[in-house]
Give the backbone structure.
Amino acid sequence: MVGKNEQRAGLLYGVGAYGMWGVVPLFWPLLKPSGAIEILAHRMVWSLGVVAIALLAVRRWAWLGELLRDPRRLGLITVAAATITVNWGLYIWAVNQGQVVEASLGYFINPLVTIAMGVLLLGERLRPVQWTAVAISLAAVLVLAIGYGRPPWISLVLAFSFATYGLVKKKVDMGGLESLAAETAVLFLPALGFLVWLGATGGSTFAAAGTGHAVLLAATGLVTAVPLICFGAAAVRVPLSTLGLLQYLAPVSQFTLGVLYFQEAMPPQRWAGFALVWLALSLLTWDALRTARRNRALAAKLLAAAGAGSEAAADTPSTPSATATGTTTATTATTATTASTPAQSATPAQQKVV
């Protein structure tokens, strides 16, 4: 049972993680004149160094041997590394091309894409409110396509790549720090090889643009790892439902920066499309909170019934059937309670990494 102080600390860690992800669009333009691919390669290389230091500090290495003996999980890690490469690279490119608003839209619609993939790939069943939210999101994409004069492909690729990444990580079932270490290890040699080639051909900006620029490129490892470490600390201290609400801090901050700081255009059609997305997310949030309340109420009733059954069994010790009934009721109630409150104990399937 997590205490109030731990929950408070977890909330601060969560706000810190999503807050840092929310202001990361301010960082990538500082790395110009480096191109998106060079920045991405540095991010992969330096992230592994930061994560390795973190793992040395906490002395968590047992997972490595298990992973190397499991070809299936290694394959999944490789797929996760490929999808997060697409996500990272496109996000960096979009921000440095002045498309912060469209990039933020990708993380707004990511929960909706995740739901759609659950239906199509995992055979999950949706409640009516969830179907309504998905339908509204499809209408939003159509409105935005009209507003942009093209499909919002940056948003869609970011949303689908990150949803795929989350799905794969759910199957891998590893901690955030460990999985990032494994993914960056897969990416390390290709990224380092690209940087060496870039330097040999005179295309590297690492040394050419000065010491300050080189330090900023090296800092991409910290920009990647620190928020994820905070996220991991939050995930074990606060309910999944709370993390689900906190995740909107990042795209809201990114959207605000795009409109107010980067002065990106927001014609009426774009506002209408975003409004539909926000409506769909509001419905999803309301439905999730309502379902969580119902689950908690059901769990409380089942526990109360189990307690009443135990008391009745204690009052009538000479009746074996009563005792057996009370024990069965208690067991059933405990099982139902565990199954009906996943938000309190589940580990988040997705790790927010931008």
